[in-house]
Write a structure and sequence with these properties.
Blueprint lengths: L3 E5 L14 E7 L4 E5 L3 E2 L2 E2 L14 E3 L21 E5 L6 H10 L3 E6 L2 H7 L5 E4 L5 H8 L4 E4 L11 H17 L5 E5 L8 H4 L2 H15 L4 E6 L1 E2 L8 E5 L9 E2 L1 H13 L6 E8 L7 H6 L25 H11 L2
Parallel strand pairs: 7-8, 7-10, 8-9, 10-11, 11-12, 12-16, 13-15
Antiparallel strand pairs: 1-2, 1-6, 2-3, 4-5, 14-16
Helix pairs in contact: 1-7, 3-4, 4-6, 6-9
Bound molecules: NADP nicotinamide-adenine-dinucleotide phosphate.
């Protein structure tokens, strides 16, 4: 396929962001006589509807490959902090979920706290949260609780489900399908997995970690705005570790600790800030001052490559062909929408 090119109308090299229509997306024809489409929106000097863009050093042109364009379902890029009126928290009664509920309430969001048992959950959750009972792997049950949600945060722990942890994947799949059924493509999904999630069980020894990697891959294939948060060991941080330390590449080993508030903050701020989108980050706590500028924290990390199933700096990735057939089918189905 011919590479696509984005350039400014009239070939101008002037500075500034330009306005809608001042960028042209070349999507067909020949290099001499390309078919050009005006871009509808411009964000930070780049056309909003282009899925992946990069600007060669010293050039006003932006290039990419046409196989990375997603004409039907465009990735959402935020210009500014998102308004989070309503957030659904799945796994809200868990060690991390409870802290996400607290932190979301502190941000004055309407909090829907999902559980499989409302009576049990009400005893564990603050009164400000609306407890919603639903099976998290059931699309029909999720639709009403997801309706109108600006963000969904998943902190479910399903390692001991008697299925090797496959429920973890089923929940993420159901959330994606429910958002699709509802026609809510702009709902942000923040997903907690674990450090080492990118590796196969031959490295970690835990089958449930495989299902976390598969769930991450499904979310990346979904085209939704997402933040994937891989925490270190809960509560193993030192007493002075008040700073959030974000890493990428899934290279950290051992038992680095993380404050559960730090996990909750990155899950929520990933949904709120423009640079939280399409991120895969490992989260630890380190010595230093608490983070006050979450956009700056997230902007210092790299976004995942469009069209890639893996975190941007992950290495030694498991081939998709080595995943179970149903995972391959799900990824193909989502990527083909
Ligand atoms: N411990 C660590 O240091 C550490 C580090 C990194 C990552 N992790 C990962 O974090 C997760 C645990 O987090 P956590 O301790 O906050 O969670 P958790 O307390 O184990 O579970 C969170 C909630 O998930 C729901 N849940 C549990 N089993 C389920 C099932 N089979 N189907 C549907 N929902 C289910 C439960 O909610 P209801 O009963 O209310 O429905 C539960 O309260 C694990 O997956 C673990 O791999 C842990």
């Amino acid at each position: 396929m011919r590479p696509w090119v984005v350039s400014r109308a009239g070939g101008t090299r002037s500075g500034g962001a330009g306005g809608p229509g001042s960028w042209l997306l070349e999507v067909g024809g020949s290099a001499r006589n390309p078919t050009r489409l005006p871009c509808i929106e411009v964000l930070g000097g780049l056309p909003r509807q282009v899925f992946r863009v990069f600007r060669p050093r010293g050039s006003s042109r932006v290039q990419g490959s046409s196989d990375r364009l997603r004409p039907r379902r465009q990735q959402t890029y935020l210009k500014e902090r998102r308004t989070m009126t309503t957030v659904l928290i799945i796994g809200a009664t868990g060690q991390v979920g409870r802290v996400v509920v607290e932190e979301a309430l502190a941000r004055e969001a309407t909090v829907r706290a999902q559980t499989r048992s409302a009576s049990r959950a009400r005893r564990r959750l603050p009164r400000g949260a609306e407890v919603v009972e639903a099976s998290p792997s059931d699309v029909d049950a999720l639709c009403p609780v997801l309706t109108g949600a600006d963000a969904v945060v998943l902190t479910h722990g399903t390692d001991s489900d008697g299925r090797g942890g496959a429920t973890f994947y089923d929940v993420v799949r159901a959330v994606i399908d429910a958002l699709d059924a509802l026609g809510q493509p702009t709902t942000h999904v923040s997903l907690m997995t674990t450090m080492n999630a990118s590796h196969s069980a031959t490295v970690t020894g835990y089958e449930f970690v495989e299902w976390k990697r598969r769930a991450e891959r499904l979310l990346r294939a979904s085209g939704l705005s997402y933040t994937i948060v891989r925490p270190g060991w809960f509560d193993y941080q030192g007493s002075g570790d008040r700073r959030i330390d974000l890493r990428q590449g899934d290279l950290v080993t051992g038992q680095p600790g993380v404050d559960r508030h730090h996990i909750a903050q990155v899950l929520l701020e990933g949904a709120l800030n423009p640079s939280g989108s399409r991120r895969t980050v490992e989260v630890f706590s380190a010595s230093g001052s608490p983070v006050t500028d979450f956009e700056a924290l997230l902007a210092a990390t790299r976004a995942d490559e469009p069209g890639s199933l893996d975190g941007v700096l992950d290495t030694n990735n498991v081939a998709l062909t080595e995943e179970p057939a149903r995972v391959q089918e799900d990824v193909a189905r989502l990527a083909g929408r």
